[in-house]
């Protein structure tokens, strides 16, 4: 939306809700669409984002901030603010929907699967791709470039990545299937015994050995390559 039209719309909405003595300003924020400064009696709208938004999205942004102005300082997004916001026609939540246009940052992160994200500042924490893993996964971390070129990372990022790499567990050995032969690697009197897996649970095997049926953790049994003895 053109900024002149944004100003006209915002001024009209502010007048409709009797925000006399308040002024509208534009700023260069890239990660938030608007803000309300009660002490200065000022509503600020993001210049770059307003240019990307459709009129309906601009209006919702304005209503969000007008609701803050009407609620007064100290209410944040509490029940008072929510009640006022609904009354004046705001239909969103604390933030605009995820599909609202965004300004890409100069820092671009790409995961191993090719998923992309951007940042406006040099990252200081290691992040992994939420499309690849709902929880943090070092193998799905973003690799960053700045304006299309490799760039030095923040020392805090480099230190965290080194710590994460040091903590990364060794690859899990292959699991044995029911019927496979295994050697027990546990300490104690059963260490070194061989047997046949009769059952595999979530974390343990039931192994038939010369000493009877034993319950052994996956880590305590090493699969063998020789075939099981014939009966």
TrEMBL record:
Residues 1-139 form the SprT-like domain. One of its GO terms (biological process) is proteolysis. It comes from the Bacteria. One of its GO terms (molecular function) is metallopeptidase activity. The keyword Hydrolase applies. Keywords: Hydrolase, Metalloprotease, Protease. Pfam families: SprT-like (PF10263). This is Putative SprT family Zn-dependent metalloprotease. It comes from Paractinoplanes abujensis.
């Amino acid at each position: 939306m053109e900024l002149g039209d944004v100003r006209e719309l915002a001024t009209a909405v502010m007048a409709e809700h009797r925000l006399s003595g308040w002024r509208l300003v534009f700023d260069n924020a890239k990660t938030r669409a608007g803000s309300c400064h009660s002490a200065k009696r000022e509503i600020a709208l993001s210049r770059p984002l307003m240019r990307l938004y459709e009129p309906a999205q601009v209006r919702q942004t304005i209503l969000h901030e007008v609701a803050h102005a009407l609620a007064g300082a100290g209410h944040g997004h509490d029940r008072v603010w929510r009640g006022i916001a609904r009354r004046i026609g705001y239909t969103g939540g604390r933030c605009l929907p995820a599909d609202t246009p965004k300004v890409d940052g100069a820092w671009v992160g790409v995961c191993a699967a090719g998923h992309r994200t951007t940042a406006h500042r040099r990252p200081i924490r290691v992040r992994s791709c939420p499309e690849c893993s709902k929880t943090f996964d070092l193998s799905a971390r973003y690799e960053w470039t700045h304006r299309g070129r490799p760039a030095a990372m923040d020392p805090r990022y480099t230190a965290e990545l080194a710590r994460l790499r040091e903590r990364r567990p060794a690859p899990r050995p292959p699991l044995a299937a029911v019927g496979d032969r295994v050697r027990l690697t546990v300490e104690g009197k059963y260490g070194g015994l061989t047997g046949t897996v009769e059952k595999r649970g979530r974390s343990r095997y039931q192994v038939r050995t010369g000493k009877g049926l034993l319950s052994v953790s996956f880590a305590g049994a090493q699969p063998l390559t020789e075939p099981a003895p014939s009966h």
